[in-house]
Design brief:
The chain is an alpha/beta fold. The chain is 28% helix and 23% strand. The chain has eight helices and 14 strands. Helix 2 packs parallel to helix 4 and helix 4 runs parallel beside helix 6.
Length: 290
């Protein structure tokens, strides 16, 4: 028997079928699987001013929860369990617990902070759980969001800092209020920290790092960008919000300041992620890194 000829038309049909299958597969993964599978990113960071006794101290970072449904509750619940399993010394939450959208009122958005905070109240770390507000929290009702979080054991740093004492040494954790809302007061947030005090700053918008560089801050932890939420190979992110376009994800350095941008857990506009899974970050601080 003579095998069928592999004509140009046949090639195009096969190519079209393969492309259709690939598109459907990617669409299913982007809407169903990837947004629901948080990954743990582990990093070791050299902090030259970190006291030797604090070498190895761990910080877990979670960000951009955007609680608005049962599916977001399931994702947050899963992330909390994973984070507790990592047994961090300290936990940092870098904002956007709720979503402000044209489809819901500011009141409803603010009310969503209560169940979100209830889930986050299950987080455990010996040195504490600290948070800041994001632009959506500010757009809803920052007072309601703050009260919800603090009622469940999260210390909210609104242009404020606290001294963490452990292993006979000190580390400062500071937080600024939302930058896009015009409420961030860096000088106030850093007030009282000694010049040689190792300092971690929580700031929702990562591009605020340009204002932080030159200050006595060693590490800035941010979110806001969702990492772009949809990232294509070679092309990068489809969209990035204001104040998250220079440092949209991962680790960057500006002078002595290290900036880490977490991709967040939740989604916004569309419940889709592609090439950009939800993230839990575990940072290990080192006084020296070989």
């Amino acid at each position: 028997m003579t095998p069928p000829q592999f004509t140009r038309r046949r090639f195009l049909h096969l190519f079209g079928a393969a492309a259709a299958v690939g598109f459907v597969t990617c669409a299913v993964d982007a809407t169903w699987f990837e947004p629901r599978r948080p990954v743990v990113v582990r990093l070791e960071l050299a902090i030259p001013r970190l006291p030797r006794q604090l070498d190895g101290l761990t910080i877990a970072q979670l960000s951009d929860f955007h609680f608005d449904s049962h599916s977001s509750a399931d994702l947050i619940r899963s992330a909390v369990a994973i984070t507790n399993g990592l047994a961090p010394d300290l936990i940092a939450l870098t904002g956007d617990y709720v979503t402000v959208s044209p489809f819901s009122s500011r009141f409803q958005a603010a009310e969503n902070s209560k169940p979100c905070a209830g889930l986050l109240g299950e987080l455990r770390a010996p040195l504490g759980v600290f948070g800041i507000l994001g632009n959506h929290d500010d757009g809803a009702d920052p007072r309601v969001v703050t009260r919800s979080l603090e009622a469940h054991g999260v210390t909210v740093l609104r242009n404020f800092n606290l001294r963490i004492e452990t292993r006979g040494e000190r580390l400062w954790i500071a937080g600024v209020d939302d930058v896009l809302a015009g409420n961030a007061k860096l000088g106030q947030a850093l007030q009282g920290i000694p010049a040689d005090g190792a300092t971690v700053l929580l700031a929702h918008e990562p591009d605020f790092a340009d204002s932080v560089a030159g200050q006595a801050v060693d590490l800035q932890l941010s979110g806001h960008s969702h990492g772009g939420q949809v990232r294509f190979p070679l092309l990068g992110a489809v969209y990035l919000p204001r104040m998250a376009r220079k440092y949209p994800y991962g680790l960057n350095q500006i002078g002595r300041l290290k900036v880490y941008t977490n991709r967040g857990l939740g989604t916004i506009l569309l419940p889709v992620r592609f090439g950009c899974p939800p993230e839990i970050t575990l940072l290990t601080l080192r006084s020296e890194l070989a």
